[in-house]
Design a protein that fits this description.
two-stranded antiparallel ribbon, single chain, 4 strands, mainly alpha, 441 residues, globular
């Protein structure tokens, strides 16, 4: 592993934007540590530290960093699709769209499907043995929640070709249209009370942030300070004057969430974060130019998705072991709780590393056979994956045998149905594209 990482790091071309790779690692790492820190676990269940100490919700304005990951995704997707479009122009017998989907999703869907199958089998076994109460039941519900991120990322990949085409024609106008859509949705939602319209902002908000990545790929984010100031001022104004909560992550029991579905306030938050990381681009690029640090970034990028998928499993495993050993957990946010926090995070990090060692091979798929691409087949596959993964993130694995469901937009979805859609979509994506050389990824 070490020799492979060293070889990849040394082979990195000078033209590669290493700062983007650093942002990808830092954003996912921040989310992981944030989840470990926010978990307020007691013998009665799992709560949220931000609900226990509401004053800490202001920290989400810096630590809710998923917009940065989606921004980086837009940058990478633009470069990848343009490369495929040049190598496989329309009319050469293959679909660049299908090839793009397969190339971008193979490293994402394989570890995701393994995670889903392992936890699905574990949940079935637990329930057949009559378990599922206490922390076990909570775990069966919680472990799938990070899959919402996978679902949104699938949508971004699927929409990259048409949105990139709009970007190449209209530039900032395409971004502005997505922002206008997010504004309209919130007006219809909060002013006119139109039902279900809020779910459209899963597309408008996150795709607008993704579109900023296209602009960066073309060198058109020239005033990051203005972008950061506008976003921060906009978010502050909306929270102060509107129905938007202070927290930029979802809170238990809240009437309005900035996250699910996303709001205009979260979009402003994304603008502020993108502007902020662009302001740090120079120092960040110099930092990641150091060979040792760059090797660390390469290594982390190689297992980032596996670590993200399994980090909640590790955290819940640590708490489960403590409870099984008869350890009395301190009250969340108490002095004893804060004193133990570094040890709990270290234990969760160690267990995550062990899980990564066990499952990292699925994030490095073998080369695919060459075959003609099918755009419609790829589109159908990614659509099924999208709804399956999002549905599973909402329903979880608890109540698997009882037919427990959750509402995805306006449709009730059970865990078996969600898993079936995700697996069928993955199968279609795997068979829709053709092999892509390593330098095209």
């Amino acid at each position: 592993m070490g020799s492979r990482v060293r070889a990849l790091a040394e082979a990195t071309p000078d033209t590669r934007d290493r700062y983007v790779d650093l942002l990808r690692v830092v954003s996912l790492g921040t989310v992981v540590v944030g989840h470990w820190l926010m978990a307020a676990v007691t013998a009665d269940g799992v709560g949220n530290l931000l609900a226990v100490v509401p004053e800490l919700q202001l920290l989400t304005w810096a630590l809710q960093i998923m917009p940065v990951f989606f921004f980086v995704g837009g940058f990478s997707h633009a470069l990848s699709y343009r490369s495929l479009r040049r190598r496989h122009p329309a009319g050469d017998g293959a679909s660049p769209y299908a090839a793009f989907l397969r190339a971008r999703l193979r490293r994402l869907l394989r570890p995701t499907m393994v995670f889903v199958l392992v936890w699905g089998a574990a949940a079935l076994l637990v329930q057949l043995l009559g378990g599922g109460a206490g922390l076990t039941g909570v775990s069966l519900r919680l472990v799938t929640q990070p899959l919402w991120f996978i679902g949104i990322y699938l949508a971004m990949v699927a929409f990259t070709p048409p949105l990139l085409k709009l970007h190449e024609r209209y530039g900032w106008g395409a971004f502005g249209a997505l922002v206008a859509g997010a504004v309209l949705v919130d007006v219809l939602r909060f002013t006119l009370g139109v039902p279900f319209v809020e779910f459209l902002n899963f597309a408008f908000v996150w795709l607008a942030v993704h579109q900023l990545g296209f602009l960066r790929a073309d060198g058109r984010l020239r005033l990051p300070s203005a972008l950061a100031a506008t976003g921060l001022a906009g978010a502050a104004l909306l929270v102060a004057a509107g129905p938007y909560p202070l927290s930029m992550v979802g809170m238990p029991g809240e009437k309005v969430s900035n996250m699910a579905p996303p709001t205009l306030a979260l979009l402003c938050h994304g603008l502020w974060l993108v502007g902020a990381v662009e302001l740090l681009r120079g120092p960040g690029a110099r930092l990641v130019a150091r060979p040792r640090l760059w090797r660390g970034v390469v290594a982390a990028n190689g297992v980032a998705m596996t670590a993200f998928l399994w980090h909640l499993t590790a955290m819940l495993g640590v708490y489960g072991a403590l409870l099984a050993a008869g350890v009395t957990l301190p009250e969340p946010a108490s002095a004893a709780w804060w004193a133990q926090t570094p040890l709990r995070i270290a234990a969760a990090a160690l267990l995550t590393a062990l899980l990564v060692a066990a499952f990292r091979g699925f994030e490095q798929p073998s080369p695919a056979p060459v075959r003609p691409g099918s755009g419609p087949l790829a589109a159908l596959g990614i659509t099924l994956c999208l709804f399956g993964v999002l549905g599973l993130s909402m329903v979880g694995f608890a109540g698997l045998l009882e037919g427990r469901t959750a509402t995805l937009i306006a449709v009730p979805v059970s865990a078996p149905a969600a898993v079936g859609m995700a697996l069928a979509g993955w199968w279609l994506v795997e068979r829709s594209g053709f092999a892509v050389r390593r330098d095209e990824r």
